[in-house]
Amino acid sequence: VINASVQPVRLGTWPTPLEAGPRLAEALGLDQGDLWFKRDDLCGLGGGGNKVRKLEWTCAAALAAGARTLVTSGAAQSNHARLTSAAGARLGLDVVLVLSGAPDHAASGNLALDGLFGARVVWVSEHDQTPLDEVTEAVASDLRRAGATPYVVPFGGSSSLAAQGYAECGAELLLQIPDVSNVVVALGSGATTAGLISVLGAERVLGVHCGAVADPRSTLARLVSGMGVSIDSAALRLDVGQVGAGYGQLTDAVMVAMLTAARTEGLVLDPIYTGRAMAGLIAAVAAGEIGRGARTVFLHTGGMPGLFGHVDAIERVVAQVREWQFHAPQS
Ligand SMILES: Cc1ncc(COP(=O)(O)O)c(C=O)c1O
Question: 169, 281, 294, 318: which has the fewest C-beta neighbours closer than 10 Å?
Answer without folding.
Answer: 318
